TrEMBL record:
Keyword Calcium attached: yes
Residue span(s) of domain EF-hand: 23-58, 101-136
Residue ranges the record marks as coiled coil: none
Molecular-function GO term, any one: calcium ion binding
Name of the protein: EF-hand domain-containing protein
UniProt source species: Hemiselmis andersenii
Record keywords, A-Z: Calcium
SUPFAM superfamilies documented for this protein: EF-hand
InterPro entries linked: EF-hand-dom_pair, EF_Hand_1_Ca_BS, EF_hand_dom
Length: 205
């Protein structure tokens, strides 16, 4: 009896999940149809901006926000082609909602660390933020540089720390969450290396 009840609950969960997927697919299809003015099954940046305005309850995102969502979605599947397909639209909507869910926290970060009020976390701003994330311990300049390079999409490409690039354009509002993710990933990697080194020492004794 209990097994039958459990099986029934699992079946209902699967049914509800499938229903949710279909609802999301219908929602995306409707959005694409409503905003794809050229009817070619793809959205350009202007059309995506109009779509995000509707998703955002009539408030149009800034041009910087639209560009960020567009670039994230366009690069999510294969080479960039300056258009958003149906599958890329799902990435665009998810990226936008994640950004909006975290916007209050992002606003707080920029209020505290954007000393020059440029709308970007420049090298010294980012260093101050990472210092706080690092329990008050100041990070090395090369660590800050690596976070900045990765967060802004430039990557390090195996390059050594280049101090001349510390004055380059900083981390924007849409990039700061990724910067924090990169920092914690680097710290996890360092901790793993320390743990492995300690283990090796113990074994060698």
């Amino acid at each position: 009896m209990a097994a039958a009840a459990m099986a029934g609950k699992q079946a209902k969960k699967r049914h509800d999940a499938q229903l949710k997927i279909k609802e999301n697919e219908m929602y995306l299809t409707t959005l694409m149809k409503d905003f794809d003015k050229s009817a070619d099954g793809r959205l350009d940046k202007s059309e995506l901006g109009d779509l995000l305005q509707q998703v955002n309850k009539g408030v149009r995102p800034t041009e910087e926000e639209i560009t960020w969502v567009f670039n994230v979605a366009d690069s999510s599947e294969g080479p960039e082609d300056n258009t958003i397909s149906m599958s890329e639209l799902k990435v665009a909507i998810t990226s936008w909602k994640t950004y909006m869910d975290n916007k209050p926290a992002i606003d707080s970060v920029f209020e505290k660390y954007d000393q020059d009020k440029t709308g970007k976390l420049e090298f010294h701003d980012l260093k101050n933020m990472l210092k706080d994330l690092n329990d008050g311990h100041e990070p090395q300049d090369n660590e800050v540089w690596e976070v900045m390079q990765k967060a802004t999409g430039k990557g390090t490409n195996g390059q050594a720390f280049d101090y001349s690039e510390t004055s380059a354009e900083g981390v924007g509002r849409m990039e700061v969450l990724y910067a924090i993710t990169v920092w914690y990933a680097q710290e996890d990697q360092k901790q793993s290396e320390v743990t492995m080194s300690s283990s090796c020492c113990v074994v060698s004794r």
